[in-house]
Structures
1.
Amino acid sequence: MKKALFLAMLFALATNQSYTFAFPNLFGDKINKINENIPYKVKDPNLSELGRLAIGIGEKEMPGLMATRKKYGPYKPLANQKVTGSLHMTVETAVLIETLVELGADVRWASCNIFSTQDHAAAAIAKTGVPVYAWKGETLEEYWWCTLQALTFPDDSGPNLIVDDGGDATMLIHKGYELEEFAANNGYVPTIATDNKEEIVVEKLLRNILEKDAQHWHKVVGELIGASEETTTGVHRLLQREQAGTLLFAAYNVNDSVTKSKFDNVYGCRESLADGIKRATDVMIAGKTVVVCGYGEVGKGCAQSMRGYGARVLITEVDPICALQAAMEGFEVVTVEQALEEANIFVTATGNCDIITHEHMLNMLDQAIVCNIGHFDNEIQVEALNQNPNVTKETIKPQVDRYTFADGRQIFVLAEGRLVNLGCATGHPSFVMSNSFTNQVLAQIALAKEVPPVGVYMLPKILDEEVARLHLDHVGVTLTELSDKQADYIGIKKEGPYKAEHYRY
Ligand SMILES: NC(=O)c1ccc[n+]([C@@H]2O[C@H](COP(=O)([O-])OP(=O)(O)OC[C@H]3O[C@@H](n4cnc5c(N)ncnc54)[C@H](O)[C@@H]3O)[C@@H](O)[C@H]2O)c1
């Protein structure tokens, strides 16, 4: 690093200023070094006090995480573990980060979405000395640079443990490793064969890293124990790799803990979907027709939410079981094509691609609102709309775009098709995230303790029940205790687990 730049950074640190000066080539096609040795990069370090206030409120609503600190903090089960997080840098995540630190971990963090960072939370974490690389409104180049910085410790080594959400950190390591293998075996680097904007950014970054160190990702994998994965889509990616035999390290599937997917995905989305739509548009939901695409966990929460506001809710599904569930709840199950003539709001919640196509959007009602709450932005073909020369786009405010068609009809697309609850609002409330993140911490402890072989694992049911138990007091629950006779009669232990593995809740 140039001396003047280094001195400027020291000055900024000493005076608690933002790194707003330009870094040569920081996020361009060429990175300077794999680890730029920048202590943090956030929007504005001066927001840290606001962030600290919000974190304090979050702690009160996150009893699971606070109890985990109390129980495991004294034993430091994550001592000597380098932990990288790639997960929305929100207030709740700040409470998670500080829990991991309290358990002894050396933590670095990036967000897992370009729009999901709460800048005051990121600033508060940066102030504690945890290297965090995240701000709301990153470009794709910045996003992947941030992920790389979070994955690279000061001596250029990688983490021992990863907290992943959607699998981007896991994917960067796997793709980097595979590129190194290819280059070593073939003596050349393949040309980039995708026209997907984001994939091109990743491929360029990996080629840059390869130039600097042709064994970088092999060394990272060598030291890595494993990852704990937060969300449905990230778990899909892990299982696909496991089935293909290309998974390189162990991973815990946190999403399918009951206290995660049956709570965060359902009740979290039930509140944060409406929050996102309302903050973005202020639109009245009552009386409108809303289409929810996908009636899985997230879709169920979204449909309940919209019905609660007084909307008429239509569902689209490919799975006959979920379609039948929707029908039994009184929702009409249709196709997107059938819904086009009557729907005012479209919400994708499938974790699948091309759910709302370019063609669909061109045929929507005037003033229709289109948004996605699934993990990735490929559920809606926004890029095709952007490329259409007969459509004009205006940005009403950040993360709210209005498209006008040749005949004058207009539609709104929220958060550029990225998850609306984190792009246009602040994600789920703290209490539900306490359930999810307590599972994350338990998975991190399990990885550090067991160092399991390559594979995808679940936390045992007894820990799932423990996570729920930690949240009961907060909502005034009085649990009934089994008598010895009752426990004997149904053939379980009084202290649980209370259900067989196949029970679906
Ligand atoms: N935004 C958030 O806060 C948040 C929270 C949790 C999960 N997620 C993400 O939301 C997405 C959904 O998660 P989930 O837990 O509900 O998954 P899920 O598997 O339970 O549900 C997805 C549903 O979509 C259906 N589906 C698939 N293709 C379809 C198509 N072409 N048309 C209609 N339906 C289709 C599936 O049959 C399934 O029932 C994932 O990407 C997940 O990672 C987001």
2.
Amino acid sequence: MKHIKTSLAIIALASSSAAFAAVSFDTFDTDGDGAISQKEASVNTQLVEIFSALDADGNGELSKEEFSKVQ
Ligand SMILES: [Ca+2]
Ligand SMILES: [Ca+2]
């Protein structure tokens, strides 16, 4: 069930990409280190929900490539 819920969250996020597009990777990466940390992601509730699903390598940060799955 958790997986399904996560998938739906990704779909919801992707379908709202018009609004989300304005909130780009660089917007989240406030310290400019090239990755979105959980703290940086915390400004967006939807991103927090799918953070672990997007973090494919499980290092606790979203690279530009990992983040691009929602765009
Ligand atoms: Ca960062
Ligand atoms: Ca990662």
3.
Amino acid sequence: MDAADRPQGRAASGSDPLTRVLVIGAGFAGLWAALGAARRLEELCVPPGSVDITVLSDKPFHDIRVRNYEADLSPCRIPLADVLDPAGVGHITADVTGINAHTREVMTSGGQTYHYDRLVLASGSRLVKPDLPGLREFGFDVDTYDDAIRLQLHLQQLADGPATSAAAAVVVVGAGLTGIETACEMPSRLRALFVRPAVAPRVVLVDHNRFVGSDMGVSARPVIEQALADNGVETRTAVSVAEISAAGVSLSSGEHLAAATVVWCAGMRANSLTEQLPVTRDRLGRVAVDDYLRVVGVPAVFAAGDVAVAKMDDEHVSVMSCQHGRPMGRYAGYNVISDLFGKPLLALRIPWYVTVLDLGPAGAVYTEGWDRTVVSRGAEAKVTKQTINTRRIYPPLTRDRADLLAAAAPDLQARP
Ligand SMILES: Cc1cc2nc3c(=O)[nH]c(=O)nc-3n(C[C@H](O)[C@H](O)[C@H](O)COP(=O)(O)OP(=O)(O)OC[C@H]3O[C@@H](n4cnc5c(N)ncnc54)[C@H](O)[C@@H]3O)c2cc1C
């Protein structure tokens, strides 16, 4: 590394000889940002020991969050040690509570302060839980791996208890993508659990919109409606939830649905760490990033995944999704190191958009384009969904540095 190749813009940091890149979050954006940064260091032949990349994450795992609606969660949690240690990326389990963009420091709930030369914010999003009577006490969700395990244990406890119809009844609130996937999977999950004695499952999907999957477009809606019917899922649309209790759900229509389980799937918002940056946020709480994933108006800070809103093409911005979070992460990782060394940055543009929605035993629906035109359905689309959920979005699990760095290249995958 000659003088021109030394890291640029480094803040004075006393006697600390290391240049530090911090990544907050180890989800689809954070993991790939960290690996993308490690890959770029190697590509620039930066001597080991001169730039430190460390992930700060509140869990020591890379969770495959998109699979939280599934019955078997065993393949959904990957230890960070398996995917970061071989790449030489540090990781610290810490709940980040503050970011000071002026002093370039990150603070944690444990009282630690970490200096950064470059920061990648990738702390994702959280399910929005409104202040609704009973939701916090009695509601379940599939937002995180831990939430999904809590739901799983609750259902198992019900199946082990008295065999009542309410015990085998689940109300899913929110007929967006997560709610539809959760509802479609639920009847077969309940049938597998409530076997002794057999209790007929009941699953009801509730939404305040007039249609289920209102964001999925007119082409996919009939496919979704048919799948819900085929799976035996009832729907209640154009109603809202008034109250949740241990006995079930009261709707704005006056109807009471007796159910021992309510799964809340309505609404997502960017992680609140975005509020620590001195910039405005969009209606989902996301910070604006430029084509290179730099937070607009905040020097030395990049953002990727659900915390960031980036242009995907000249007309569309990123959607809170794994589909966009992974490439945003890889590009942020490449660019954060390129920026440190004064090298050209790579602009991210993704010229395609797809949706692949799991419909449980009824298969799946696969749409292409921003207007979500159905291109396949049923068993054919299910194969695509399973390929995505079990292979395409996983990091290599070989513990091999070369495999991990190769997978972190700032390339765009082809459509699934
Ligand atoms: C059930 C379900 C199904 C989904 N299905 C799809 C789908 O089919 N296709 C699709 O594209 N998207 C889907 N999504 C959305 C997708 O999961 C998210 O958009 C994606 O996970 C965003 O990636 P991310 O890295 O930005 O955030 P996340 O994956 O949420 O990762 C955030 C990371 O930040 C960490 N973190 C958070 N706060 C802190 C803190 N204060 N301090 C330290 N660490 C912190 C978390 O532990 C985590 O490691 C689904 C989501 C759910 C819940």
4.
Amino acid sequence: MANSITLQNQDYFNKEAATYDSRHADLIQRLTTTIRDNVDFIGADWKTSNATPDGEPVKLLDYACGTGMLSRTLGDYVDQCIGIDLSPQMVEIYNTRAAEENIPSAARYAVQGDLADPSDPSPAALTGPEFYGFAIAAVGGGFHHFAHPGLAATRIVERLRPGGVLAIWDFFPHAHDHDDGDNHGHDHHGHGHGHGHGHDHGHHKHTHNPDTTGDDEATTTTTAAHKSEERDGTHTITKHGFSEPELRDMFTAAGAGHEFAVLDMGHYSFKRDGQREMKRRMFLAKGRKGRD
Ligand SMILES: C[S@@+](CC[C@H](N)C(=O)[O-])C[C@H]1O[C@@H](n2cnc3c(N)ncnc32)[C@H](O)[C@@H]1O
């Protein structure tokens, strides 16, 4: 049974799906360019650079795919993209966009699912062979929303073929927006200010992080603050960024610690209507599963 943070994420992103691409157009464009510039850093066995010895198609798992940003970014380097997302509305937009781009549905499609539910180690809808054997699993902006990031990493790595790569873009540690003296903007993608100190400002009482504290329901949040968080998506965030040591530990524990590396992608700005610009320092992290 999904916990409350998962249900809040599903509800929030269902509502966000229709406008997600237009609201984040600049960010998506910049991330797309940076990630494409770094396909060698990611180092998957891309179809263009290293054809698979066994002739199997090169498959990308776009986990927490949203509307498909990473599938569009990396689609040219693989034979097939399969997206999985908690939100049915995001899945619908993903599939609509693939169809609009005239990509055959067998080559790019998404399904609704959650690989990180502790009570459901093998979701029935995701047991088919098509959901295994990925050369790369990519997760864009998803990990800071997961109720159990470590479990998610492990379950995703299970879906990789030997030698497959896990790649993540997300935020370096940053202050919670309510703690952040000089910046009270709100956005699920960027509230507060990316300090890049290499430490996590920690779990704030307004947030939910079952992985670290188990306090799935905040008790001290005011009603007004809660309403604001529900509007801006703050309530869907479980972790305010990841440090390099945390990432290394997570990749290693998940079984993708080989060739682990983190690329600092620099600061990215976010802006929503009527709100101040906010910044996040972003990383691209990658690690490889053992080849045997
Ligand atoms: C910030 S969006 C990122 C979407 C996309 N990857 C991108 O780069 O634009 C986060 C996505 O994570 C999804 N998500 C949150 N929790 C999830 C979970 N446990 N399993 C799968 N998807 C999840 C949300 O539905 C949402 O589509």
